[in-house]
Amino acid sequence: MKNFGSLMLAAVLGSAITIAATQWMGEKNDPIKIEHISGTPISQVGYTTNEKGEMVPMDFTGTAEKVTKAVVHIRSTQTVSTTRRGQQEIPEQFRQFFQFDPGPRGPSQSTGSGVLINKDGYIVTNNHVVEGADVVNVTLYDNRELKAEVIGTDPDTDLAVIKINEKDLPYLSFVNSDDSKVGEWVLAVGNPFNLNSTVTAGIISAKGRNIGIINSSNNEQNRTAIESFIQTDAAINPGNSGGALVNLQGGLLGINTAIASPTGSYSGYGFAVPSNIVSKVVEDLLAFGTVQRGWLGVQVQNVNGDMAKEYDLDVKEGAYVAEFPEKSAAKEAGLKQGDVVVKLDGSPIKSSTALIEYIGRKRPGDKIVVVVNRKGKELNYTVTLKNKSGNVGTVTREEKDAVASLGIELQDLDAKTLNMLDIDYGVKVKSVGNGKLARYTDMEEGFIITHINDQPVKSVEEVNELIKKRKPGDSITFSGIYEGSPREYFYGLRI
Questions:
Q1: Which one of the listed residues 154, 156, 158, 442 is annotated catalytic?
Q2: Confidence (pTM)
Q3: Greater model confidence, 17 or 370
Q4: Which residues make Cβ contacts (< 8 Å) with residue 117, sequence separation at least 6?
Q5: Whether residue 128 lies in the annotated active site
Q6: Distance CA 383, CA 39 (A)
């Protein structure tokens, strides 16, 4: 009992010493506080409201069922020749005079996805899904297969509109992509690896991404691409291009366009063109046949901390005006090199990508209010946007001449050159380009066209007139020579 009393006394004294020490330390250093809140564990992803306004566990089944019916599978086909010069496919009327090996030929196919945007068969997809295609086939959710017509394309946003002749089709409505938020649940719907009607779920990982893939072959100064992608971690793979990115109500938030991957397959980074850009491009293509794009007339750079320090700027975000091209609407309105655009029509502009996206939704003649920070002061300017030609008129769809429609550029030959080549007439192919002649034949730059369908040609104008007379489906034969070669060559195709 005595020992027990001693132990109790020791415990009490120890506690007192501990409390005293804690109080003394507290006067020297405030303790770090970690806040805890109570919460109820949930077994579902989350909760949402049904059509009756009742709270129910959230799932994706209803949205998936609705959306998959409006997403189609697209197969684009083009004929590819793998023959070499000297082994050309000779037109039938000349075959009895030659021994030849035409070499292998065969169709090349690519696949992708598309989204029905109204009941009358209009479909939006990526330009790269249908670019250069001779035949575009669309497979609907119920496995019906139909041929599609390409209505219009816009390489600057990698978008295209095609149409099938069918009525009363399921379709998706656009929603305002500006209202979407990072962290919001989204679904990606498409046909990866030819697996029809595939649905994947994820969140919006970021907005306003510029990854430099559209018009990437152009140099930086001449690039006209508009990239302000929605980034998502919903799985997107080859074949998803042109498919839908939707919110949980099934509204169209974007068109899936690209992935960032070291392997070529999904690795967590997918990118979609925002619906607000898609909507504007589609409306222009349907109304005008070409996109009506307003130009502010500035070359801009992202502002960051390093740039702000280097140029002594008073802001650390925005779009820095680096220079003005010719016919600049912004310069005429009063903007100066070194200004930082911080607002457009009251909307904050935090990067050059945001500026390009906003202006990309406007048309020539639209007026916008531009707020710039100039040496610490905010100044307002009203700018009337121009078209690429430097005026405010509507841009009309350019009708290519017959020669350009084949993708070639021609040049008249002078008497001296004709004499050197020992021919009486002919037209030189200055470039072959990426048109039908490049796809279907092996014609090369420098070819001298002397005859078209056995008719001699003496000028570019004559070539153009002869091609114009050919109807779709008609065959056409180019015959001629190459400088330094004793042979005559023949190239044939159907218009």
A1: 158
A2: 0.72
A3: 370
A4: 123, 124, 171, 172, 174, 252, 282
A5: yes
A6: 53
